Protein backbone atom coordinates (compact mmCIF):
# COMPACT_ATOMS: atom_id res chain seq x y z
CA UNK A 1 0.00 0.00 0.00
CA UNK A 2 1.60 3.23 -1.19
CA UNK A 3 0.93 6.41 0.77
CA UNK A 4 -0.49 9.30 -1.22
CA UNK A 5 -1.02 12.38 0.90
CA UNK A 6 -3.16 15.09 -0.60
CA UNK A 7 -2.80 17.39 2.41
CA UNK A 8 -0.69 20.47 1.67
CA UNK A 9 1.12 20.05 5.02
CA UNK A 10 1.67 16.28 5.26
CA UNK A 11 4.72 15.37 7.31
CA UNK A 12 6.86 13.66 4.68
CA UNK A 13 5.66 14.60 1.22
CA UNK A 14 5.39 18.16 2.53
CA UNK A 15 3.13 19.71 -0.06
CA UNK A 16 4.94 18.22 -3.04
CA UNK A 17 1.83 16.37 -4.21
CA UNK A 18 -0.82 18.93 -3.43
CA UNK A 19 -1.96 19.37 -6.98
CA UNK A 20 -4.04 16.68 -8.63
CA UNK A 21 -1.54 16.26 -11.44
CA UNK A 22 1.44 15.59 -9.19
CA UNK A 23 -0.67 13.34 -6.94
CA UNK A 24 -1.62 11.29 -9.99
CA UNK A 25 2.02 11.09 -11.11
CA UNK A 26 3.09 9.86 -7.69
CA UNK A 27 0.26 7.29 -7.65
CA UNK A 28 1.24 5.96 -11.09
CA UNK A 29 4.90 5.76 -10.06
CA UNK A 30 3.97 3.70 -6.98
CA UNK A 31 1.83 1.40 -9.20
CA UNK A 32 4.80 0.91 -11.53
CA UNK A 33 6.92 0.03 -8.52
CA UNK A 34 4.49 -2.71 -7.53
CA UNK A 35 1.94 -1.14 -5.19
CA UNK A 36 -1.33 -3.08 -5.05
CA UNK A 37 -3.16 -0.33 -3.20
CA UNK A 38 -2.88 3.47 -3.28
CA UNK A 39 -3.90 5.02 0.03
CA UNK A 40 -5.35 8.47 -0.54
CA UNK A 41 -5.50 10.68 2.55
CA UNK A 42 -6.69 14.23 2.94
CA UNK A 43 -7.40 14.42 6.64
CA UNK A 44 -6.84 17.45 8.77
CA UNK A 45 -7.00 15.82 12.20
CA UNK A 46 -3.36 14.71 12.52
CA UNK A 47 -1.14 16.39 15.14
CA UNK A 48 -0.24 19.88 14.00
CA UNK A 49 -2.38 19.67 10.88
CA UNK A 50 -4.38 22.65 9.69
CA UNK A 51 -8.16 22.56 10.07
CA UNK A 52 -9.89 21.84 6.77
CA UNK A 53 -13.63 21.59 6.25
CA UNK A 54 -15.23 18.26 5.36
CA UNK A 55 -16.30 19.62 1.99
CA UNK A 56 -12.73 20.75 1.16
CA UNK A 57 -11.42 17.33 2.22
CA UNK A 58 -13.99 15.61 0.01
CA UNK A 59 -13.17 17.84 -2.94
CA UNK A 60 -9.45 17.13 -2.58
CA UNK A 61 -9.66 13.34 -2.27
CA UNK A 62 -12.44 12.90 -4.85
CA UNK A 63 -10.45 14.79 -7.50
CA UNK A 64 -7.37 12.66 -6.86
CA UNK A 65 -9.30 9.36 -6.70
CA UNK A 66 -11.17 10.13 -9.92
CA UNK A 67 -7.88 11.00 -11.65
CA UNK A 68 -6.22 7.73 -10.54
CA UNK A 69 -9.32 5.69 -11.43
CA UNK A 70 -9.26 7.12 -14.97
CA UNK A 71 -5.68 5.91 -15.49
CA UNK A 72 -5.47 2.52 -13.71
CA UNK A 73 -7.46 -0.32 -12.15
CA UNK A 74 -5.34 -0.27 -8.97
CA UNK A 75 -7.17 -0.63 -5.67
CA UNK A 76 -7.60 2.80 -4.08
CA UNK A 77 -8.10 3.12 -0.34
CA UNK A 78 -9.41 6.21 1.41
CA UNK A 79 -7.60 7.19 4.61
CA UNK A 80 -10.29 8.96 6.61
CA UNK A 81 -12.36 8.73 9.79
CA UNK A 82 -15.31 10.71 8.43
CA UNK A 83 -18.32 8.79 7.05
CA UNK A 84 -19.10 11.60 4.57
CA UNK A 85 -15.61 11.30 3.10
CA UNK A 86 -15.80 7.46 3.02
CA UNK A 87 -19.03 7.64 1.02
CA UNK A 88 -17.80 10.30 -1.44
CA UNK A 89 -14.45 8.51 -1.92
CA UNK A 90 -16.01 5.10 -2.64
CA UNK A 91 -18.48 6.71 -5.05
CA UNK A 92 -15.49 8.30 -6.83
CA UNK A 93 -13.73 4.92 -7.22
CA UNK A 94 -12.10 3.95 -3.91
CA UNK A 95 -12.73 0.34 -2.86
CA UNK A 96 -11.22 0.14 0.64
CA UNK A 97 -11.74 2.28 3.74
CA UNK A 98 -8.66 2.87 5.93
CA UNK A 99 -9.69 4.43 9.22
CA UNK A 100 -7.11 5.35 11.89
CA UNK A 101 -10.06 5.79 14.25
CA UNK A 102 -11.30 2.21 13.76
CA UNK A 103 -14.78 3.22 12.47
CA UNK A 104 -15.68 4.78 15.83
CA UNK A 105 -17.05 8.05 14.38
CA UNK A 106 -20.82 8.35 14.45
CA UNK A 107 -22.20 6.72 11.28
CA UNK A 108 -18.93 5.20 10.06
CA UNK A 109 -19.91 1.55 10.71
CA UNK A 110 -23.23 1.97 8.94
CA UNK A 111 -21.72 3.71 5.89
CA UNK A 112 -19.10 0.96 5.50
CA UNK A 113 -21.71 -1.79 5.91
CA UNK A 114 -23.84 -0.13 3.20
CA UNK A 115 -20.84 0.34 0.88
CA UNK A 116 -19.84 -3.33 1.37
CA UNK A 117 -16.11 -2.58 1.02
CA UNK A 118 -13.13 -3.96 2.97
CA UNK A 119 -12.25 -1.83 5.99
CA UNK A 120 -8.96 -1.40 7.81
CA UNK A 121 -9.70 -1.01 11.51
CA UNK A 122 -6.75 0.68 13.20
CA UNK A 123 -6.13 1.00 16.93
CA UNK A 124 -5.50 4.44 18.36
CA UNK A 125 -5.46 5.40 22.05
CA UNK A 126 -6.86 8.90 22.55
CA UNK A 127 -7.17 11.34 19.69
CA UNK A 128 -4.52 12.69 17.30
CA UNK A 129 -4.01 16.05 18.99
CA UNK A 130 -3.23 14.60 22.43
CA UNK A 131 -2.53 10.89 21.95
CA UNK A 132 1.23 11.12 22.50
CA UNK A 133 0.96 13.07 25.77
CA UNK A 134 0.87 10.11 28.17
CA UNK A 135 -0.16 6.81 26.61
CA UNK A 136 -0.87 4.13 29.23
CA UNK A 137 -1.63 0.42 28.79
CA UNK A 138 -2.00 -2.52 31.11
CA UNK A 139 -0.35 -4.70 28.43
CA UNK A 140 -0.23 -3.01 25.04
CA UNK A 141 -0.74 -6.24 23.04
CA UNK A 142 -3.50 -7.61 25.30
CA UNK A 143 -5.25 -4.22 25.39
CA UNK A 144 -5.22 -3.95 21.59
CA UNK A 145 -6.46 -7.55 21.24
CA UNK A 146 -9.44 -6.60 23.42
CA UNK A 147 -10.01 -3.48 21.29
CA UNK A 148 -9.96 -5.62 18.11
CA UNK A 149 -12.42 -8.13 19.63
CA UNK A 150 -14.82 -5.30 20.46
CA UNK A 151 -14.44 -3.55 17.08
CA UNK A 152 -14.86 -6.82 15.14
CA UNK A 153 -18.10 -7.43 17.05
CA UNK A 154 -19.34 -3.86 16.41
CA UNK A 155 -18.48 -4.19 12.72
CA UNK A 156 -20.28 -7.51 12.37
CA UNK A 157 -23.31 -6.26 14.36
CA UNK A 158 -23.53 -3.28 11.96
CA UNK A 159 -23.53 -5.62 8.94
CA UNK A 160 -19.86 -5.48 7.88
CA UNK A 161 -18.77 -8.94 6.75
CA UNK A 162 -16.02 -10.44 8.92
CA UNK A 163 -14.03 -11.34 5.80
CA UNK A 164 -14.01 -7.63 4.90
CA UNK A 165 -12.08 -6.64 8.03
CA UNK A 166 -8.35 -5.84 8.10
CA UNK A 167 -6.67 -5.18 11.47
CA UNK A 168 -3.91 -2.63 12.21
CA UNK A 169 -2.31 -2.11 15.65
CA UNK A 170 -1.63 1.55 14.80
CA UNK A 171 2.08 2.07 15.34
CA UNK A 172 2.69 5.53 16.81
CA UNK A 173 -0.94 6.30 17.56
CA UNK A 174 -1.06 6.84 21.34
CA UNK A 175 2.03 4.70 21.99
CA UNK A 176 5.47 5.28 23.51
CA UNK A 177 8.58 3.85 21.87
CA UNK A 178 8.44 0.96 24.37
CA UNK A 179 4.81 0.25 23.40
CA UNK A 180 5.70 0.32 19.69
CA UNK A 181 8.65 -2.04 20.16
CA UNK A 182 6.54 -4.44 22.21
CA UNK A 183 3.88 -4.38 19.48
CA UNK A 184 6.37 -5.13 16.73
CA UNK A 185 8.07 -7.89 18.72
CA UNK A 186 4.76 -9.59 19.54
CA UNK A 187 2.91 -8.80 16.30
CA UNK A 188 2.38 -12.54 15.67
CA UNK A 189 -0.10 -12.63 18.59
CA UNK A 190 -2.65 -10.77 16.43
CA UNK A 191 -2.80 -13.79 14.13
CA UNK A 192 -5.38 -15.31 16.55
CA UNK A 193 -8.09 -13.32 14.72
CA UNK A 194 -7.34 -14.98 11.40
CA UNK A 195 -7.73 -11.64 9.62
CA UNK A 196 -5.25 -9.77 7.41
CA UNK A 197 -2.81 -7.58 9.35
CA UNK A 198 -1.78 -4.16 8.03
CA UNK A 199 1.15 -2.24 9.48
CA UNK A 200 2.20 1.38 9.05
CA UNK A 201 5.82 1.77 10.12
CA UNK A 202 7.17 3.75 7.18
CA UNK A 203 9.39 6.66 8.31
CA UNK A 204 7.57 6.92 11.63
CA UNK A 205 8.99 8.80 14.59
CA UNK A 206 9.45 5.54 16.56
CA UNK A 207 12.22 4.81 14.03
CA UNK A 208 13.51 8.35 14.38
CA UNK A 209 13.79 7.76 18.13
CA UNK A 210 15.80 4.57 17.62
CA UNK A 211 18.07 6.32 15.11
CA UNK A 212 18.13 9.61 16.99
CA UNK A 213 17.21 11.32 13.71
CA UNK A 214 14.40 13.85 13.48
CA UNK A 215 14.32 13.86 9.67
CA UNK A 216 11.74 11.46 8.15
CA UNK A 217 13.71 11.33 4.86
CA UNK A 218 16.60 9.70 6.75
CA UNK A 219 14.50 6.75 7.95
CA UNK A 220 14.25 4.58 4.82
CA UNK A 221 16.68 1.85 5.93
CA UNK A 222 15.10 1.66 9.37
CA UNK A 223 11.68 1.42 7.69
CA UNK A 224 12.86 -1.54 5.61
CA UNK A 225 14.19 -3.33 8.70
CA UNK A 226 10.88 -2.74 10.46
CA UNK A 227 8.89 -4.01 7.46
CA UNK A 228 10.96 -7.21 7.31
CA UNK A 229 10.55 -7.79 11.05
CA UNK A 230 6.78 -7.26 10.74
CA UNK A 231 6.66 -9.68 7.78
CA UNK A 232 8.38 -12.44 9.77
CA UNK A 233 5.71 -11.96 12.44
CA UNK A 234 2.79 -12.28 10.02
CA UNK A 235 2.02 -8.81 8.61
CA UNK A 236 0.18 -9.02 5.28
CA UNK A 237 -0.15 -5.39 4.17
CA UNK A 238 2.42 -2.59 4.46
CA UNK A 239 1.52 1.08 4.28
CA UNK A 240 4.70 2.67 2.95
CA UNK A 241 6.17 5.73 1.26
CA UNK A 242 8.91 3.73 -0.52
CA UNK A 243 7.19 1.04 -2.57
CA UNK A 244 10.10 -0.38 -4.63
CA UNK A 245 12.53 -0.55 -1.70
CA UNK A 246 9.97 -2.18 0.61
CA UNK A 247 8.85 -4.69 -2.01
CA UNK A 248 12.47 -5.76 -2.66
CA UNK A 249 13.09 -6.25 1.07
CA UNK A 250 9.88 -8.25 1.46
CA UNK A 251 10.74 -10.42 -1.57
CA UNK A 252 13.97 -11.48 0.14
CA UNK A 253 12.04 -12.18 3.32
CA UNK A 254 9.44 -14.32 1.55
CA UNK A 255 12.08 -16.19 -0.50
CA UNK A 256 13.78 -17.29 2.72
CA UNK A 257 10.51 -18.21 4.37
CA UNK A 258 9.67 -20.40 1.35
CA UNK A 259 12.86 -22.47 1.60
CA UNK A 260 12.71 -25.94 3.22
C1 LIG B 1 1.24 12.61 11.33
C2 LIG B 1 0.94 11.57 12.20
C3 LIG B 1 1.35 12.38 9.98
C4 LIG B 1 0.75 10.30 11.70
C5 LIG B 1 1.18 11.11 9.49
C6 LIG B 1 0.88 10.08 10.34
C7 LIG B 1 -1.25 4.82 9.50
C8 LIG B 1 -2.35 5.08 8.71
C9 LIG B 1 -1.23 6.90 9.03
C10 LIG B 1 -1.04 3.48 9.99
C11 LIG B 1 -3.04 2.89 8.81
C12 LIG B 1 1.89 8.26 9.03
C13 LIG B 1 0.70 8.68 9.86
N1 LIG B 1 -0.55 5.96 9.67
N2 LIG B 1 -3.24 4.13 8.35
N3 LIG B 1 -2.33 6.40 8.41
N4 LIG B 1 -1.97 2.57 9.60
N5 LIG B 1 -3.91 1.92 8.50
O1 LIG B 1 2.99 8.16 9.66
O2 LIG B 1 -0.10 3.17 10.72
O3 LIG B 1 1.80 8.07 7.83
S1 LIG B 1 -0.82 8.57 8.96
In words, what does this structure look like?
- This protein has helices at 20-32, 54-71, 83-92, 108-115, 140-158, 177-185, 205-211, 220-232, 243-257; strands at residues 2-5, 37-41, 75-79, 96-99, 119-122, 165-168, 198-199, 237-238.
- It is of the alpha/beta class and 260 residues long.
- The strands form 2 sheets. It has a 6-stranded parallel sheet, covered by helices on one side.
- Helix 2 (54-71) packs parallel to helix 3 (83-92) and helix 3 runs parallel beside helix 4.
- The chain is globular and about 45 Å long.
- The model has no long low-confidence stretch (mean pLDDT 94).
- The structure holds ligand 7PM.
- The site of ligand 7PM has 16 residues, from strand 5.
Describe the structure using short key phrases.
two-stranded parallel ribbon; binds ligand 7PM; about 260 residues; alpha/beta; 9 helices; single chain
Amino acid sequence: MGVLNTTPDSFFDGGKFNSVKSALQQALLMCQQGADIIDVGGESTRPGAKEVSVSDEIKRVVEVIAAIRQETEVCISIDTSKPEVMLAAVNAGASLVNDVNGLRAYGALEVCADLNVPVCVMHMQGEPRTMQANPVYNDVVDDIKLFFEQRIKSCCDAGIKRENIILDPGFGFGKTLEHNLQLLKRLDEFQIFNLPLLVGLSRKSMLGKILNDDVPENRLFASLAAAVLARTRGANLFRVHDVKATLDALKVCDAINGVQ
